[in-house]
């Protein structure tokens, strides 16, 4: 197992579009394990492969307080969505920044699990937010794309400054 | 996705900056809102927590002292404030208890002090099992000793009402811009949008909202239809009683609440000079006038140094001195004041007020009126200040003021929080012998 490096906005590699996984094999299972470890280490609740510079449609999540209830989505697709909610989102690729984003209140998805089996999932509330947030990453999108130009510029500048002067 | 933003941890950080580090609430909250863009719901929760902990700090701190086996070390002060945030919710809000505890405990993580979860959890749970007994004067506890003492000495009959009111959430008061429409018209607009709002019985331009709302939610706020201003501050315009065509000086004008009220009432019929010593606050004053589409002559100067700025020939018909003061009449609106103000500040402010009174008096025309006011309820800044001024100025006569909402004192009128449903303001009017 290994902790992977998480790309930080505005890294252009966050813009790459992930390809579907052709076969769920040991390589993919290894990637899933590494991504989970990386997510737990960063104290996140969701991570997309794009964020660790692997451009395959793989997502890991864990919304539990106890951090022992991982959810893995491979090649996820939204088949239904409904309603609207607003939530203060944050992202492991955009450290220490939060902003409200409007998304569907509930989604129904299909995906593959690490054994390569297909399953359905009906999600609402935070789980639905997190799924939509991570699926955006696979399309090369980040949550600040939904904000005003002004806010996007502010975040970009702040993070560029941080990268130049780390641990200041 | 990053873990959930923890509002309690943010509130702990903010209150620590305000109470321990002496930063003003009006600076801390906006800069926090700039760093993290919060949804409207989290924003109002954060605001509620920060205001509440500032108001009840004395009480909450005493509770924490009893709940903790040993005080939290200085380098972990944020945790101490996190505990106060938790206690505030349990004691003063009707948040569901388990949610309040769980969210507060997980705030430790956001503060990078996950090791403290057990400690915070233990304290909050032990509070729920058996809240520690505090001394009978718990309300007073939330005022620093010197303030409680000064208020009790000044207002023995009203003391309890005042300190209690200082710890309550004040109503949100509006002032309608008469140039853009009548109060009734604006009330109608508010009712249409389901605000519960009443005409203010004590101010003819005033409206009281039952529940606070962000100004951006108010109809036509950006266009200048209304401003936020406490009822007690709205009395200034009537008590100055300027007449059309007169020359008026607003000597301490920024951020322009009362300047704007004067102009709204008198259209373009006043020649108004609006001064303020602070350049930054002059900008706020100008912004106020711009929003309300009003025009005044804004000057950045020390009003008392009358050589340093220009006056009309012959002086002014009316001068208003909204003097810098301790703000002890507005503790309910500015819960950080009690943590920052000291007894020594008061002496200093009394001297500044005296300097303004003395310096500006020569600029008043014979027969003209000077209105002196503060948002303090300390006699030294108010009644005694005017008493001393009269003793040294033979050509100054006290003009009797009265208002249904105020106590009449020997040298002016005074509103008191908790006694009159408004902030504590003092007004005194002096007329110059002709
Ligand atoms: C109570 S506030 C005025 C509030 C204002 N009248 C309103 O209604 O919005 C007092 C103001 O006096 C200003 N000030 C203090 N000393 C001054 C001086 N010597 N000359 C002019 N302004 C002064 C402060 O900068 C502050 O803005
Ligand atoms: Zn993300």
Write the element-wise H/E pattern of chain B from the N-terminal end onward.
Answer: HHHHHHHHHEHEEEHEHEHEEHHEHEEEE
Mean pLDDT of chain A: 94
The number of helical elements of chain A comes to 3
Derived structural class of chain B: alpha/beta
CATH topology of the largest domain in chain B, anyone?
Answer: Rossmann fold
Structural class of chain A, by secondary structure, is: alpha+beta
Topology order of chain A in helix (H) and strand (E) letters: HEEEEEEEHH
Percent in strands of chain B: 5-15%
Number of strands of chain A: 7
Task: Tell me briefly what this model is.
With 168 residues, chain A is α+β, with helices and mostly antiparallel strands.
Strand-helix topology:
The complex is a heterodimer of chains A (168) and B (434).
Chain A: H1 26-41, E1 46-48, E2 58-61, E3 71-82, E4 85-91, E5 94-103, E6 106-112, E7 118-124, H2 125-138, H3 149-164
Antiparallel strand pairs in A: 1-2, 2-3, 3-6, 4-5, 6-7
Chain B: H1 7-19, H2 25-35, H3 40-67, H4 77-92, H5 97-110, H6 117-129, H7 138-141, H8 145-154, H9 159-166, E1 172-176, H10 183-192, E2 197-199, E3 206-209, E4 226-228, H11 231-240, E5 247-250, H12 257-266, E6 271-276, H13 279-292, E7 297-300, E8 316-322, H14 337-340, H15 343-360, E9 364-374, H16 383-392, E10 396-399, E11 407-409, E12 412-414, E13 426-432
Parallel strand pairs in B: 5-6, 5-8, 6-7, 8-9
Antiparallel strand pairs in B: 1-3, 1-4, 2-3, 9-13, 10-13, 11-12, 12-13
Helix pairs in contact in B: 1-2, 1-3, 1-4, 1-5, 3-4, 4-5, 4-6, 5-6, 8-9, 11-12
The structure holds S-adenosylmethionine and zinc ion.
